[in-house]
Amino acid sequence: LAVISLTTDFGSGDHEAGVLQGVIWSIASGAHIVDLTHEIPPQSILEAALLLWRVSPYFPDGAIHVAVVDPGVGTARRALAGQFGTQYFVGPDNGLISLILKRAEDNNEPVSIVQLDQRKFWLSEVSNVFHGRDIFAPVAGYLAAGTPLNKLGTPIHDPVRIELPTPKLIEGGWEGQVIHIDHFGNLATNLDINHLKRSKEVVIEIKGVEIDGVVSTFGDRPVGSLIALLDSSGSLAISVVNGSAALNLHAAVGDKFEVHFNK
Amino acid sequence: LAVISLTTDFGSGDHEAGVLQGVIWSIASGAHIVDLTHEIPPQSILEAALLLWRVSPYFPDGAIHVAVVDPGVGTARRALAGQFGTQYFVGPDNGLISLILKRAEDNNEPVSIVQLDQRKFWLSEVSNVFHGRDIFAPVAGYLAAGTPLNKLGTPIHDPVRIELPTPKLIEGGWEGQVIHIDHFGNLATNLDINHLKRSKEVVIEIKGVEIDGVVSTFGDRPVGSLIALLDSSGSLAISVVNGSAALNLHAAVGDKFEVHFNK
Amino acid sequence: LAVISLTTDFGSGDHEAGVLQGVIWSIASGAHIVDLTHEIPPQSILEAALLLWRVSPYFPDGAIHVAVVDPGVGTARRALAGQFGTQYFVGPDNGLISLILKRAEDNNEPVSIVQLDQRKFWLSEVSNVFHGRDIFAPVAGYLAAGTPLNKLGTPIHDPVRIELPTPKLIEGGWEGQVIHIDHFGNLATNLDINHLKRSKEVVIEIKGVEIDGVVSTFGDRPVGSLIALLDSSGSLAISVVNGSAALNLHAAVGDKFEVHFNK
């Protein structure tokens, strides 16, 4: 049985998210569909790309990820479907696949991308404003129902790529950046375990505050403490035990911070 | 396999939405269930009716739509199930079906409505405050499991109907109204492509601001522009490219605006 | 087919909730999964325990409830799976099961609890910060796929228990407490039908306001009225007809109130 995930910026209060499921089930009636989230900040392609990168390793082979964060809908931007390792992606060509594509390439996994141009796999009427419903959902349905990727479109090799901000090497350490703030107010950053290989004996300086060392888990410090730890995706995160680092530090995505290795 | 959709004003943070799925699965164990939304504004029957009207064309034959926006629960208001074309509805008799019923009638599709009065298809205990759980979910479960509509209740022909506000013909154009504001701040209106048949060369006046013409899609204008376009349901919508028309115009549901055809 | 429910404080905007479904489907591919809610207030074990208690009677036999509200993740707190009557629970040992355990005991239903200590039923890498993904979701998947409970861990008999605040007997009545506020602003309390056996002819005093008697349903009073009624779980609730008691009374979880029986 096919598994399909949905990631959009549609919100959960309107009809758009549910329509995707109706369209998919009209074509692939037994599909299991999960709403990963419909709360991507409007037009935040990078946040959706990051979520797909975090989620996909935990999905079964053959899973199809539909992502619709699509500020260019109705313009000349291409529509894509792709295979990355054992899983599939369907959505606009605007960088959403950047991180899962890079990982598949780094791991020498099979990669195959087609530009969607076969209208027989779309709804019969295609609006200018909702390709999620009219193109991406039906294509995902046909993929789930067994249509091979190469029937859905024409191979391309130049998908749009975007990148996470790169950490900057500074004297005695790194300058990093906050790339996501979660529901608890934890700050995810663009540093990970590789940047801490030299040592976890570091001092982290963010918004004028210093954090000593990287702990293993929240319970290592008292409630209310500001801590640094490796989060569940292996990224360096800044948190408050049972609280919100975002609120405590008035932090926002894009904020910079420094990691200094102890001498 | 039956497909069941859920639309309520219960919110996503409480137990009520999930209970519906438990009850349905207790009766129709293989049903695929989708939460269309649980974020209908409290008691907003018209918004739920509009959502059902927008969503149902994209669901497969046999789909069962359960809608519970039910300020009259526990009073004399009737409980309904109905068939409209190839799909089904279960919920209170307060106007929720108005728009899908009218469309089925306009299209000469089969329509059949019963008042739910067969307690053997309800939970054994029926509370005064949660018919979603005690009546509508089990009835949807039995429908999904194959019970024919006419076993569930007694035919009626006078369901409660509500209407979208009617556009008003004015000199040289139309006066319309905002009927829904979505997650992006797009303003959906009660005008549609039929009101623009004469021409799309129009000037739209809303809250003291003028919009020239109806564009095809968001990308036709620079980011930040106020535009008018036909949305994915064919309604005239007022939007800001990659922004929020609701915020820019301080607009609310019920706000009026005028469309003037160019001479 | 197995039914699995998910209850967490992860929010709906991040990747954590969806990852659970991916992990479960990787092990139990046909499972039907419902998100009960991911909006439990952060670290509010009691609210999650209450939700499980309200929801589980309406789920089919064999349902597996995964609850991850887990401030102690990565510390010495135990991980549990348990059977309570005909249903299952998987999650941390911090009191989440307290109310469903007590009900099973009160009803003399079978109860069996194991401490999860069999790593072969976990993901191969276990992080310190996300046992929902690494332990609880895979264990739920194996349960759903038919692994017996007693293979998953070692029996224990001392799970952590927490309690709802106990109503206090006062002269001529009861002192109760608000234990949950729902999406509509209804105040659920720790009093129930048992505390009103003597009479429903009561005066309720909350925040300086008096409510006369307990009504049957919302429609018994005009829109805007402050009322007391028995909610769908049999608890005494304080509501405003088509409005919000929480807003009207500026009420919060933990607020006390008194019920006085009429002489």
Kindly list the characteristics that best describe this protein.
about 30% strand, homotrimer, 6 helices, about 260 residues, alpha+beta, eight-stranded antiparallel beta sheet
What would your notes on this structure say?
The structure is a homotrimer of 263-residue chains. Chain A is an alpha+beta fold and 263 residues long. Chain A is 21% helix and 31% strand. Chain A is built from six helices and 15 strands. In chain A, helix 1 links the parallel strand 1 and strand 2. The longest helix of chain A is centred in the middle third of the chain and has 14 residues. Chain A starts with a strand and ends with a strand. At the A-B interface, helix 1 and strand 2 of A face strand 2 and helix 2 of B.
Average pLDDT, all residues of chain A:
95
Whole-angstrom Rg of chain A: 20 Å
Note the beta-strand portion of chain A.
25-35%
Largest interface: A-B, 34 and 33 residues
